Amino acid sequence: MAEFDAYLMVDWSASSRPPKGPDSIWYCLLTRTDNRLSIAALENPTTRFRAGAEVKEILRDLVRRGQSVLVGFDFPYGDPSGFAAALRLKDTPAWLAVWREITSMVTDLDDNRNNRFAAAAGFNLRISERGYPFWG
Hints:
Elements: E1 6-11, E2 26-33, E3 36-43, H1 48-64, E4 69-73, H2 83-86, H3 94-105, H4 116-128
Parallel strand pairs: 1-4
Antiparallel strand pairs: 1-2, 2-3
């Protein structure tokens, strides 16, 4: 018996513009029919907003059909040990406090414009009062 009915892999992009082709968002959906995998979708949406909507719809459809799916994204979920304390965040768990802080500071518009560099600069000031540890 197969482990999953479908596999969805997403190559994300932090681009501040809506690009196509290299250095942009791609996703590929493989589905299983008669124990063979085939490409059901290979897409290059221009924005994170559009990609998110398309991925959600794919996942909803798979759930409606009762299929299991393995989903992979190529962005990190980690931060350095002590990061929450360096930002003087008190909520627990620390990882959730960091996620909430990032969410409150970063604006990501539907055309890919965002303020991630300004948010990182704000974190730099709070942590070191200088231009580090985050580049840009």
